[in-house]
DNA sequence: TTGACGTATTCCGTTATGGGTATACGATTG
DNA sequence: CAATCGTATACCCATAACGGAATACGTCAA
């Protein structure tokens, strides 16, 4: 088996920085493809391909307007990511494992990669 | 260019479900590899390989204990993901897109947040 | 020492990515 | 109708993932 397809879920779709950029742009409102092309500095076909991936995981929706296609964001599929991260949030805000951290740093003097 | 390496950042590392499972298990505390192998029902080499990826993005740290290697979670690298998601959270809580919100709520009457 | 244990690494094959480039296709304009 | 615009798709290539299987390596026990 190879790596899971980018269209498997939002986790995979969003792993690509360009696609995150696209979502960020669409967060500001509906945009035609060429707008995104201009802002991203990418070639049009690549943008269309990224949009396809995002469409397949329903992170964006399209609307035809004459010869343009207006894309807009649908943040809903990001929810599972947020939900998964929830369990880890307290680990940043509180200090559960100060001791662990210290121990780790101590034992990292000889272990390397 | 091919897809970005899984070790590029937490986004990519965490796109793989198995690795998320591993982190979930480690969230409960330090564990030796064989523990993870048992819980995941995966072959040992695959687990070691996943752990390597997680190590390379610093999502886990290791500590040698005799012939075992105890892995523990380091949630810090997840932060950029959460930070990125931040901009989208309000889209669930507030109603940017009224129509979508209504539809979403209708289909979510049994789940809460 | 030898052997068993715990874990990491290597090699293989299959699959799909993402960029580049060319092109197809629908809608609009002249 | 032809030409053009806006966008999607088809191909090609280089890269690497993931699982499977075999094996290497360090540590501990007998």
Automatic annotation (TrEMBL), chains A, B:
Stored PROSITE patterns: HTH_ARSR_2 (PS50987)
Cross-referenced SUPFAM superfamilies: Winged helix' DNA-binding domain
Keyword Transcription regulation applies: yes
Designated name of the protein: ArsR/SmtB family transcription factor
CDD domains according to UniProt: HTH_ARSR
Xref: InterPro entries: ArsR-like_HTH, HTH_ArsR_DNA-bd_dom, HTH_MetalResp_TranReg, WH-like_DNA-bd_sf, WH_DNA-bd_sf
Domain HTH arsR-type intervals: 1-93
UniProt xrefs under Pfam families: HTH_5
Alphabetized UniProt keyword annotations: DNA-binding, Transcription, Transcription regulation
């Amino acid at each position: 088996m190879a790596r899971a397809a980018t269209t498997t879920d939002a986790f995979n779709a969003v792993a690509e920085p360009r696609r995150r950029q696209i979502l960020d742009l669409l967060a500001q409102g509906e945009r035609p493809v060429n707008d995104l092309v201009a802002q991203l500095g990418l070639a049009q076909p690549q943008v269309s391909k990224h949009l396809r991936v995002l469409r397949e995981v329903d992170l964006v929706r399209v609307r035809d307007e004459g010869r343009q296609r207006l894309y807009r964001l649908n943040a809903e599929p990001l929810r599972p990511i947020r939900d998964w991260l929830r369990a880890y949030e307290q680990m940043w805000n509180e200090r559960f494992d100060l001791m662990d951290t210290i121990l780790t740093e101590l034992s990292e003097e000889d272990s390397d990669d």
